[in-house]
TrEMBL record:
NCBIfam families documented for this protein: transp_NF041680
Biased composition (Basic residues): 400-416, 425-435
Superkingdom to which the source organism belongs: Bacteria
Protein name: NF041680 family putative transposase
SUPFAM superfamilies: Ribonuclease H-like
UniProt-annotated stretches for the region Disordered: 393-435
TM annotation in the entry: none
Species per Swiss-Prot/TrEMBL record: Cyanobacterium aponinum AL20115
Alphabetical list of InterPro entries matching this protein: RNaseH-like_sf
Amino acid sequence: MNKYNRLKNFRHDTYEMLVKSKDATFELMDSIMTRENARSLAEFSLSPFFQRQWCSTYEAIEDSRPNGNKLMKRYTQEIDTLEYTLLGIDHTQWECKDSPTMKDRGYQYSHSSLNSSVVGQGYSTIAWLPPLKEKGSWALPLRHERITSFETPLSKARWQLKQVCRELPEKRRKLVVLDCEYGNGKFIQQTADIEISKLIRVRSNLCLYSKPDPYSGRGRPKKHGAKWKLNQCDDFPQSNKVLEMEDSSLGLIRISKWTELHFYNAPTQQLTLFKIERLKEKKTGSLHRPLWLIWVGEEFLSLEYIWSQYKRRFGLEHWYRFAKQRLHWTLPNFRTPDRCQRWSNLIVNITWQLWLSKDLVQEHHLPWQKPQQNLTPGRVALSMTSLLIEIGSPTLSPKSRGKSHGWPQGRKRNKAKVYPTIKKQQSKSKKRRKT
């Protein structure tokens, strides 16, 4: 079997799923992979892989119809058969402050902004986190979709998790790792009907509750037992299990485990609490703050693998940076949210093509860069030119169609409609004194 067949079949299936303007759209994707720097969407037409005029870059996004459901089903076919499937969920923002004609813009949280928020759109991502022999930052999104003004990151994550779990084999175990924003009873209650285990980081000021005492026979049975404040962990009872181990990046760590706990607003969902302590002191002599994790669902990992599997969640954050900086995800300024979603679907597909090309490319690195054994997504993208020339493209050559008649004389041009910026929670106005 030809070693390129897997990549060729994937590229051909992608080409067929683009429906309209698939030739221009597919050539645009190859241009994105091979062009490291760009200042606008039109600059991708300068790539030798793009055989059309610069205006076709915008027309490709306007006309193409990449279906997210069909693409997700195709991605799940490339997931390796393992003991369990590890998924990760997170969300990020696409800043669109200079796009007043775009509908459904809102205020999105941004840690790098002076006001902690930017005007734009939020995107939720669920990705497969593949196992790596060495250090790496690969995350392969299965769904990367816009969070509308009628949704929240929690509701969107629940919907994406349900859609992905339907396509994965039922008998295979599944685990999803999430950040502290999803570590609350509301999300645990919403995802209780989905057959998947959850490993979530929780904030240190959280309160959990133990199992209630047996029913005494009088009154309503208790739902909650003793209250556990994570920032007062010195008062906790003795842990069920403790393990000290050496971590490659943190040094000596201690992992403690407590069972049969729950959130106040989700008393029926039992969880396991993990406390991860870094025993090596800081340079100042003080101790590091502990990290708290909870496990909800079927437990199938031993204590020594809890931290190593949760660390793989950071690959999704690395993918966000890679998509924005190298794949130019937030570079274009589209007018409608639908075009933004089509563009986002193309970026996800490019990531999968890079993953399938990881073992096929001949590494091309700059003179001051060290060679790598396990190639990163950026290093694979840097080496894609020769591979794309070798395997070819399923697109057809463009045909000249003559000059356009242009804008009809006397026809008026209407200005684009300006939409207001949506603010979900309005602050209460202060009461004025009566005069």
